[in-house]
Design brief:
Blueprint: H1 2-19, H2 25-28, E1 29-35, E2 53-59, E3 67-73, E4 80-81, E5 88-89, E6 99-100, H3 108-116, E7 120-124, H4 127-132, H5 135-157, E8 174-184, H6 186-195, E9 209-215, E10 237-242, H7 254-257, E11 266-271, H8 304-322
Parallel strand pairs: 3-7, 3-8, 8-9, 9-10, 10-11
Antiparallel strand pairs: 1-2, 2-7, 4-5, 4-6
Helix pairs in contact: 3-8, 5-6
Keywords: Hydrolase, Signal
Pfam families: PETase
Protein name: Alpha/beta hydrolase family protein
């Protein structure tokens, strides 16, 4: 009888587990935005003020432990859109009658996947940079913008700073010693600049970058023989490339070639059939200004969903293995 009762109990437990409703992504992941203003960040080394705005994906159950932080940065696209004429605006802040193009929301799918795995993910807006800044200033300003958001989160983790009141739920739950960065397109060079050996001293005190993902990044140096601004030998990084990228091709593989024999944890992967724009939902067909930039004649071109799924698998697995 004891054996029978035990078997029945086990069967009941199995059935309860199988039949119990599973938590959906929406139930597991929280989303919140912050915006301190379109010209809130005055960096003395940058010629224009920048916005401090972001969307945050996070585990709803933060538990009693600190979580690794990931900062995502988009690349160069329009900053403002005329909703009637559907033409790009060249100013920042956006003129009256034009809306902001939220490129920073183009990676929500990735933020959700990472948050499901226990990461706090901050995708930041860089529209002021896109509207006004070119050349090296456009890249070091991207790096400085990442550092500024990390400074905000460092202070928030202590219950201090301008985010403390509205995002108090994160106090004590952010591990600034386990930080990852992801940058797409020009944002890819931006995060490599921020993580480079040369610019490590510019990280906010208490912050440690442990993993970097340049996603379909640009690669070029203002001085051909000087790559020191983006040379990363001390931090693991993984470049994600696209075989059908009609915007920048696979030039980003040079980041790995630059550190052969100097960084044992530098790698690249190419998603066959992927293009440049589908990584960002705001840059994809179906949105104002969205474009399919797949290389003409590309064999085996991926759908947007397939491409984002492939990118998410590569990026989530990399961060999960390096930030744990």
């Amino acid at each position: 009888m004891t054996f029978l009762r035990t078997a029945v109990a086990v069967l009941a437990l199995v059935l309860a587990t199988v039949l119990a409703p599973q938590a959906t992504a929406a139930q597991r992941v929280g989303v919140v935005e912050y915006n301190l203003g379109d010209q809130a960040f005055h960096d003395p080394t940058v010629s224009v003020p920048m916005e401090l705005a972001a969307v945050v994906h996070y585990p709803r159950d933060l538990g009693g432990r600190p979580h690794p932080l990931i900062v995502q940065e988009h690349g160069s696209w329009w900053s403002c859109l005329d909703p009637v004429a559907k033409t790009p605006g060249g100013d920042w802040p956006c003129p009256p009658g034009q809306r902001t193009l939220p490129s920073y929301r183009g990676y929500d799918y990735l933020g959700e996947k990472l948050a499901e795995r226990g990461f706090i993910v901050v995708s930041i807006s860089a529209n002021a940079i896109n509207a006004h800044l070119l050349g090296d200033e456009g890249y070091f300003s991207r790096a400085h913008l990442v550092n500024k958001h990390l400074e905000l989160w460092r202070d928030l983790a202590r219950g201090e700073g301008p985010l403390a009141a509205s995002l108090s739920r994160f106090r004590g739950h952010v591990d600034l010693s386990r930080v990852g960065t992801m940058g797409h397109s020009r944002g890819g060079k931006g995060v490599m600049w921020q993580a480079s050996d040369k610019h490590t001293p510019e990280w906010p005190a208490g912050v440690r970058i442990r993993a970097v993902v340049p996603l379909a990044p640009v690669y070029f140096n203002s001085t051909e023989d000087d790559n020191s601004d983006v040379l990363v030998t001390r931090v693991p990084f993984k470049v994600v490339l696209s075989s059908c990228d009609g915007a920048v091709g696979i030039v980003g593989q040079q980041y790995v070639k630059d550190v052969v024999g100097r960084n044992p944890d530098a790698s690249a992967v190419t998603l066959v059939g992927a293009n440049h724009n589908f990584y960002n939902t705001e840059w994809s067909p179906g949105k104002i200004g969205g474009e399919d930039d797949t290389t003409p004649g590309c064999v085996g071109a991926l759908t947007p969903a397939q491409q984002r799924g492939g990118a998410a698998r590569e990026i989530v697995s990399f961060f999960a293995s390096r930030l744990r």
